[in-house]
Amino acid sequence: MSIKENVVKKSKRANEAAKDLANLGSEIKNEALLAMADALLDRKDYILEENEKDMEYGRENDLPESLLDRLLLTEDRIEKMANGLREVAQFDDPIGEMMEMKKRPNGLKIGKVKVPLGVIGIIYEARPNVTVDAAGLCLKAGNTVVLRGSSSAINSNKAIVKVIAKAAYQAGLPEGSIELIESTERKAVQEMFKLNDYLDVLIPRGGAGLINAVVNNSTVPVIETGVGNCHTYVDSEADLDMATEITINAKTQRTGVCNAMETLLVHQDVAEEFLPQMVDELQQRDTTVKGDDRVQEIVDDVQAASEEDWATEFLDYILAIKVVDSFDAAVEHIDEYSTKHSEAIITENYTKAHKFTDIIDAAAVYVNASTRFTDGGQFGLGAEIGISTQKLHARGPMGVNELTTTKFIVFGEGQVRE
Amino acid sequence: MSIKENVVKKSKRANEAAKDLANLGSEIKNEALLAMADALLDRKDYILEENEKDMEYGRENDLPESLLDRLLLTEDRIEKMANGLREVAQFDDPIGEMMEMKKRPNGLKIGKVKVPLGVIGIIYEARPNVTVDAAGLCLKAGNTVVLRGSSSAINSNKAIVKVIAKAAYQAGLPEGSIELIESTERKAVQEMFKLNDYLDVLIPRGGAGLINAVVNNSTVPVIETGVGNCHTYVDSEADLDMATEITINAKTQRTGVCNAMETLLVHQDVAEEFLPQMVDELQQRDTTVKGDDRVQEIVDDVQAASEEDWATEFLDYILAIKVVDSFDAAVEHIDEYSTKHSEAIITENYTKAHKFTDIIDAAAVYVNASTRFTDGGQFGLGAEIGISTQKLHARGPMGVNELTTTKFIVFGEGQVRE
C-alpha cells in the first residue's frame, strides 16, 4: 500500500468512526478514557521497551540531550499520562448542549447545539505524551483523531496507540476513533494537508518550522498554535521589585515553552535604576542578556542585540532587552515583533494598564503578572490541546470546548418562506 | 505599480487602519454607517451612471440575463443598500463585551473580551450590493475590509467604494477602513491568498468555483461559505400536504440561492401517494424533475437522474427526486452528497425527528420546515455576511458577532508561576 493510500485509508476510517462517535453518550466516552488510562498502566513495560528503542536510536543519532529528555518515557511519566486521561474523564461533556433556543415570530423554534468538529488531525513533534493527551481531549469532545508524531518517537507512539486504541474499542468506541499515521516520510504529512474530504481540522504542535509548513500547505482548515515571541514592558510607573520578580519568572521559570518571555522592554525613566540589578539577577541564573545601545550603556557585559533578536523566540536562557522612550514606543515595538501570543505590562498606572489591554493585539494581555500563566490549566479550562495564536475559531488556550462546533436545529410545523 | 505592489499597499493600509478602528467607540462607527447611507443616496446618479457602464459592457459581452439582473442597480436597489447600512447601525456593537471574568485561586482576574478579527478580505462575484453590505457589517464589528469584486461590476464597485469610503473617513473612521482592489486580473486575488501578514481572514462569496479556488490556494485563514446541495426527506410518517407545501417552497420560492432544495428523498411507503401530485405541482411551476428508476416507474414525464445530479447544486428550476427504502437510506444518501448546509426531514414521528437532528451533520437541520429559512435575518441574527458551511469559527448564517474574535485579559498584582 502506498503512503498516500495508507493515509487516506486511516483518515477515511477515522471519518467513518466520527459519525458514530458524535452521538455516543458521555458515559461510554468516559469509560473509554478510564479504560485507556488503565491500559497504559497495565502495558507500561511494553511501552517502556518500545520507548527504549526510540531512545537508543536517538542516542545513536546524537539527538541533543533536551530532545532525548522530551522523548524519554518513565513509569512516572506514563502514570502522569494515565492521570491526564482520568482528569479529562471528569470534565463536563460539552456535546449536546443547546446554547440558545428561541421561538421566532413565525413559530419556528431555532436553537444552536454543540457538536463535535468531526476528525481532528494532530501533527506534532517529539513528546510521546502528546499522543495520549491529544487523543483524550479529542475523544472527550466526540471527535476522532488522526495522529502523526515525529519519526524520533515512532516506536513509542505505535505502542501507545496500540494500547489506547484497543482499550477504547473494547470500551465501546467505534473502531478508527484513534488512528496513527505510521509512515515517518514527509510525504505522509503532505497527504494529510489535502484530505478535506476526511479531516475537519489540522492542529500542528511543535516549532515554527512545522507550524509554517502546515499553515502554508494545508487546504484543510488549520488552527495555528504556539509560537510565542512574548514581551514584558516595564513602565515608568512600575513597581520595580514586582517587575524584577515577574521578569525572572517569565524568562527563567521554564524556558522551552511558548509563554516564556523573550524580550523585555524598559521605559527610559526607570532603566538606570532597574536594569543593573535585573541583569545581574538574570546572569546569576545563567541567562544571556542581549541589549540595544542604551542597555549596553547602562550595564556592562551585555551582548549587542541584533534586529533578528527582536523577532526570535529563543526558547532558551536568552533575553533581549530594549530601552524605550515611552509607552507608545513599547506598544509599537510589540506591534512589530509580537506573534500575538502573550504580552504583559508592569505598571501601577490605572490608565496605562487599561490602555495596554485595550490596544495590544494578542491571545492574552497581562497587567502585573508573568506571561507564563497562558495555559489551559492556569486559566481554569482544564487540559489544553494547544494555544491558538490565530484569530479564527479559538484564541489562546484551547480546551475541550474549543474542539467543538455548533449546528442550528430548527423545529417547525410546516413553515414555508414568504 | 505592479498588481502585487498595489494589493500589498491596500492591504497594508487596511491593516494599519484596523489598529485604530479596533478601539473606536460604537458612536463613531454608527455615525459612519449612517453617513455612508446618506452618501449613497446623495451620489446615486453618479453610481447609476457607473453601473450603466458595467451593464453596457455586460450586454456587449452577452452576459446571461440572470447575471445582468444581479449586476443592475436601480434607485430602489441603492435605497435598499442604504437602508441595510442604517439597519446595521441599529445593531448592538459586539466589541468590548467582557464575556467572562473569573478570579482564579491565585488572585488573577482572567476575562475574555470580544475584539475585532482585524482585516477581512471579501472576494465576491457580480452583485454590487455585496460591496456595501460586507463593508457595513465588517465596520460595525470594528474590522477594516479589503474588497475584491468581479470584473463585470468593476465600475459600480469603484463608484460605490469611492462614495462610502469618503463618507466613512469624514465621519471619523481611519483612512484605509474600506479598500477596494481595483485590478480585475486573477493575479490580484492570488496575491490576497498569501497576505497572512496583513489579512486576518478571507471570506469568498460566490459559486463553487470561486470558493474552491480560495480554499485550495489561500494560506490566509478562510471561512467557506455558501455552497448548498440541500435535501428534504419525506418520511413514511410525513403529513403529505405539509410535505407538498414545503417541497414547493424549498424548491421554487427562489431557486438561485444556496438554501434552496436540490434533491427530494421520498420514503417508498408514501412514494406512490405523494409523487404523482407533487411532480405535477412542480411541473406546473416550470420545474424540471429528474428521478431515479422508481420515481420514473411511478410518474411519467420524468427525466432520468444521473449520478452527477445527486451531487449538483442546480440553483435553477430543477429537482432531483429519489425513492428510498428507509430512514437510514435517506440519511446515508444525505451523508454522501450533502454539502452540510441545510437538510430537512418531514415527519410526524417524534423519534425520527430527533434522530434526524442528532445525526445529520449540517449547518442547519430542519424538522417540518423549508430549508429556505437558513438566513441571518430569518434566524434573528440580523444581516449576514454569508452562510458558513465549514466547522471552524462559525457555522451557518454569520452576522456581526461572527466577525469578531476574543482575547484574554489578565489583571494581576505581581503573580508569578510556581
TrEMBL record, chains A, B:
Coarse class of the primary localization is cytoplasm
* GO MF terms held by the record: glutamate-5-semialdehyde dehydrogenase activity; NADP binding
What highest taxon heads this organism's lineage?
A: Bacteria
- What do the Gene Ontology cellular component annotations say? cytoplasm
- Enumerate the InterPro entries for this protein: Ald_DH/histidinol_DH, Ald_DH_C, Ald_DH_N, Aldehyde_DH_dom, G-glutamylP_reductase_CS, Glu-5-SA_DH, GPR_dom
Enzyme Commission number(s) from the entry: 1.2.1.41
| UniProt pathway | Amino-acid biosynthesis; L-proline biosynthesis; L-glutamate 5-semialdehyde from L-glutamate: step 2/2
> A Pfam family for this UniProt protein?
Aldedh
Can you say where in the cell this protein is located?
Cytoplasm
UniProt-listed GO biological process terms = L-proline biosynthetic process
CDD domains for this protein: ALDH_F18-19_ProA-GPR
Q: Which residues form the Aldehyde dehydrogenase domain?
A: 5-285
Which keywords belong to this entry?
Answer: Amino-acid biosynthesis, Cytoplasm, NADP, Oxidoreductase, Proline biosynthesis
Known catalytic reactions = L-glutamate 5-semialdehyde + phosphate + NADP(+) = L-glutamyl 5-phosphate + NADPH + H(+)
List the PANTHER family: DELTA-1-PYRROLINE-5-CARBOXYLATE SYNTHASE, GLUTAMATE SEMIALDEHYDE DEHYDROGENASE
Q: What does this protein do?
A: Catalyzes the NADPH-dependent reduction of L-glutamate 5-phosphate into L-glutamate 5-semialdehyde and phosphate. The product spontaneously undergoes cyclization to form 1-pyrroline-5-carboxylate.
Similarity remark: Belongs to the gamma-glutamyl phosphate reductase family.
Its protein name is: Gamma-glutamyl phosphate reductase
This chain's source organism reads: Halanaerobacter jeridensis
